[in-house]
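Team,

Forwarding the record for the chain on the shared tracking sheet. I've put the sequence and predicted structure together so nobody has to dig through attachments.
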Amino acid sequence: MPGAYLIFGPPGAGKGTQAPRLAARLAVPHIATGDMLRAHVKGNTPLGIEAKGYMDAGDLVPDDLVVRMLGERIAEPDAAGGFLLDGFPRTVPQAVALDQMLAERGRPLDCVLVLDVSEEEVVRRISGRLVAKNGRIYHELYDPPKVPGIDDDEGLPLERRPDDEADVVRNRYRNVYLAQTLPVREHYQQVGVREVLIDGMGTTDDVAARLDAALPA
């Protein structure tokens, strides 16, 4: 069932886990804006050079530049039947700019897929992450190391990133997600884009099965 989709939810909801699998099932490209931006910068494209100037100055990449990158991406042949957006828009002004660009191309969003996860679960998922210097990631509850605090492969100590501390996660959830990003969902409700609400609790397979049931082939 190809179409133009947006996967939406708080940090830690599982968007990055579910989106590639779902995009493959729908036979549409998964467009993660962070990956797209990094690819432009690495490829030294004109848009990447422009973006790098902002990044090197410590500034946010302007919304219109991200939208232009998205416009180029969805014009590629593999996106002719649709796409799955992940990571953008995160604010209402971004959503409005995206809507305008999609309307100009005759490809408005068909559906917003909302992964519903509670604040407490977000905090539990993110604050439980443990990282080794070799890049291996564990979770205290869901994927613990064999020996507490020690990487299974190289015996390296595991650490919790400062951004993953519970109070930081809670602050980000309340002051960024609730204040700035959740209104994007309300925006699409107001303009009449179809919404599919998915219970994001449980295992990865549980959530995948709910997505499959909500979007039958």
